[in-house]
Amino acid sequence: MSIAWRPFVDFVSEHHSFVLTTHMRADCDALGSELALAAALESLGKKVRIVNADGVPPHIAFIDRAKRVEVLGEDVLASELLGDSVDAMIVVDTSAWQQIGPMADIFRESTAAKVVIDHHVSGDDMGAQVFKDDSAEANGRLILEAIEALGVDLTEEMATVLFAAIATDTGWFRFALVGASCFAAIEKLVAAGASPPRIFGALYEQSTQARVNLQGLILSQVETALEGRFAHSCATRADYETTGAQQNDTEDVVNRLLTIAGVEAAALFVEFEKGITKISLRSRTNFDVRSIAEQFGGGGHRAAAGLRIPQPLPEARKMVLEAMDAKMNELDG
After folding, report:
1. How is 250-276 classified by DSSP, letter by letter?
2. Calpha distance 154→221 (Å, rounded)
3. Which residues face 69 on adjacent strands?
4. What is the CATH number of domain 210-332?
5. 25 three-class SS
6. Does residue 303 contact residue 224 with C-beta atoms inside 8 Å?
């Protein structure tokens, strides 16, 4: 489903001061989308701030070398974003109130014109113009389309962060949504200066020992269920304390569970603050993990979804396992 970008071009031409934001614990797709769009808008003479609910995770800090991303409540006050100095706000890579955290209050209260650019199926009514294509493999590709629609020439900076966005959200181009349009976008980004070897090295060859140790613990605790069709593991608060790892050091581990022969879907349960469990779901078949996530207020894609359950880890795991069992039995029946 291609997007008609003309209304977005008009939106940009009609406004001067922009605030960009995205979901909490932003990944490369979210951050790359923000950073590339900010650079494009600034090339058109616009004033732009990137303000998120939390900071850039240390393991992907390379993506924001200029430290453009500001944190609400630390680098910027809410009052600075609600005045007349901001006339446009854009949310990228999500269309869910819950996912943008405290930035949701800013987005609701602001009198600025609003836009959402997203590639997820589910979403809330955020009172904004929505530019969405849920067939897109990464939000970064939509931002590339938006930049082209604006008539802005790609710089090496834009190309690098957008390459990182697309590469990470596609599991380095191995997920089912990857197609010709994805590789056509990648060709443009490489031509504009993105270096796949340098980006891969920054992403996957700069891990701390704590990160590696945590991932080792997670992989040592893998269990299978539903006759070997579902693999799951967890990261507890004690695991973080033992290894000294950061909260985001679990990123991409869930995909390793899919490498087990016979596994169709996988889950990683992460114990957050007391009584809250974050679950990442993945599938390598036509099994729709988004349908599981949506049962608990989460969302995402058919092959990659996420959710939070306000329950301790053991209870959350039991709930998801029961939902997975019911869904698989339904499909088998």
Report:
1. GTTHHHHHTTSTT--EEEEEEE-STT-
2. 44
3. 50
4. 3.10.310.30
5. coil
6. no
Please enumerate in sequence order all residues whose Cβ is within 8 A of that of 45, keeping only pairs 6 or more positions apart, or say none. none
The CA distance from 250 to 161, in Å, is 21
Q: Are 48 and 125 in contact (CB under 8 A)?
A: no
How many H helices and E strands in the chain? Answer: 13, 12
Question: What tens-digit pLDDT sequence spans the chain (333 residues)?
Answer: 689 999 999 999 999 999 999 999 899 999 999 999 999 999 999 999 999 999 999 889 999 999 999 999 999 999 999 988 999 999 999 999 988 999 999 999 999 999 999 999 877 899 999 999 999 999 999 999 999 999 999 999 999 999 999 999 998 998 888 999 999 999 999 999 999 999 999 998 988 999 999 999 999 999 999 999 999 999 999 999 999 998 888 988 999 999 999 999 999 999 987 789 999 999 988 889 999 999 998 888 888 888 899 999 999 999 999 999 998 888 776
Tokens 């306000």 belong to: 310
What residues contact 8, with CB distance under 8 A and at least 6 apart? Answer: 115, 117, 129, 131, 146, 149, 150
Q: What region does 49 belong to: left with phi over 0, alpha with psi -120 to 50, or beta?
A: beta
Looking at domain 6-204, does it have CATH number 3.90.1640.10? yes
90, 40 in Cβ contact below 8 A?
A: no
For tokens 């605030």, the residue is 19
Q: CA triplet 147, 99, 317: central angle to 5 degrees?
A: 130
The whole-angstrom separation of Cα 143 and Cα 162 is: 8
3-class SS letters over 37-79: HHHHHHHCCCEEEEEECCCCCHHHHHHHCCCCEEEECCCECHH
Q: What are the extents of the domains in the chain? A: 6-204, 210-332
For 105, the token pair is 């209050």
CA atoms within 13 A on the CB side of 164: 27
